[in-house]
């Protein structure tokens, strides 16, 4: 793929790429905390009848208890994201 000088052209190539930017509203939406409603919507989109995850709980269980454990689960996810 490239001979001599190819690596020196790479930064210019990357600089010239058209990179779209996010609107302020889109950026704020992406940076916002996940809501319990969003968690429920994500769980509703997953296919049932699959093997349980490493914790042994199937998707059906998480859908059933989402209202009770959703917020503590989201708090845990948020803390993990903040510590990365």
TrEMBL record:
Q: What is this protein called?
A: Uncharacterized protein
Q: Which organism is it from?
A: Pleurodeles waltl
């Amino acid at each position: 793929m490239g001979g001599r000088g190819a690596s020196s052209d790479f930064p210019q190539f990357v600089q010239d790429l058209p990179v779209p930017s996010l609107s302020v509203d889109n950026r704020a939406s992406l940076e916002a905390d996940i809501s319990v409603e969003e968690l429920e919507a994500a769980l509703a989109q997953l296919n049932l009848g699959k093997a349980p995850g490493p914790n042994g709980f199937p998707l059906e269980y998480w859908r059933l208890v989402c209202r009770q454990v959703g917020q503590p689960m989201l708090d845990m996810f948020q803390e993990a994201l903040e510590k990365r």
